[in-house]
Design brief:
The protein has about 250 residues and is of the alpha/beta class. It is about 40% helix and about 15% strand. It has one domain: TIM Barrel (Alpha-Beta Barrel), CATH 3.20.20.70. It has 12 helices and 8 strands. An 8-stranded parallel beta sheet has the order 3-2-1-8-7-6-5-4. The radius of gyration is 17 Å and the shape is globular.
């Protein structure tokens, strides 16, 4: 009976695939992720970042909604009840003489509950990722971004919490990676799980709607990373609700 329900109802399938396991911060650790990167869009900075964060917190869903805020907005956005907030970048430096670098402990004290690293717009070395992870608390989520399967495999060796595969040529475009290159999603999942089965895989680039999310999950991903699909939308609440409509 459950199998028939899963075939006809995507929600049943996703609830079975992602059982609820609540972490120390109250987030469902195994839920599919909707990670929205605010970047430096004017529609997602300063007061607009707070507004977008509140809209994300208001979405009724079992998915794990994550706002990836600018360092300038971490403190403000992280004060929004019910919203998980990550930093857009961190550097493997301690407190001291490191002008212009993003020091992890201060980011955590200002509300960062996780971070992305090695985004296509801010590439770093494998050593940077490795050294950063060594400085962070064990339960602090790190989402390392990869341009392709080979980079994802190399990052998986380091054991981050997540790896998000995003072909650079599709970032910010109108065609989702799940349509343009579905094989890179499934191949990345296979490669990462072969190296380290504990690393969860996300996909991004061109993701815009709930069907893109559902397709990503059907390809083996455990969530999506997107930006302009939300930050540049005319109807942000409508887009956010559509993104989780099949989860």
């Amino acid at each position: 009976m459950l199998l028939l329900q899963a075939i006809s109802n995507p929600k049943v399938r996703f609830e079975s695939q992602f059982p609820k396991r609540i972490g120390a911060q109250g987030y469902c650790m195994d839920a599919p992720l909707i990670v929205v990167n605010f970047k430096t869009y004017s529609s997602a900075m300063a007061g607009s970042a707070d507004k977008l964060g509140r809209l994300m917190a208001d979405v009724e869903t079992d998915a794990r909604m994550v706002a990836v805020a600018s360092a300038f907005d971490l403190s403000s956005v992280s004060s929004i009840s019910g919203l998980e907030v990550w930093s857009q970048h961190l550097d493997p430096v301690g407190q001291g003489s490191h002008t212009g670098w993003l020091e992890p402990q201060t980011a955590i004290e200002r509300g960062a509950a996780g971070t992305i690293i090695n985004h296509a717009e801010h590439k770093v070395s494998l050593e940077h990722v490795r050294d950063l992870m060594a400085m962070l608390p064990e339960d602090f989520p790190v989402c390392a971004c990869a341009a392709d399967v080979n980079e994802a495999r190399a990052l998986a060796e380091l054991g981050p919490t997540f790896i998000a595969v995003e072909p650079p040529e599709l970032i910010g475009g109108d065609i989702s990676v799940t349509t343009a290159d579905p094989a890179i999603v499934s191949d990345t999942v296979a490669a990462v799980k072969e190296v380290n089965p504990n690393v969860r895989v996300l996909c991004g680039a061109g993701v815009k709607n709930g069907q893109d999310v559902a397709t990503a999950i059907s390809l083996g991903a455990e969530g999506v990373l997107l930006a302009s699909g939300v930050t540049k939308a005319n109807d942000v609440p409508g887009v956010l609700n559509d993104l989780v409509s099949l989860i």
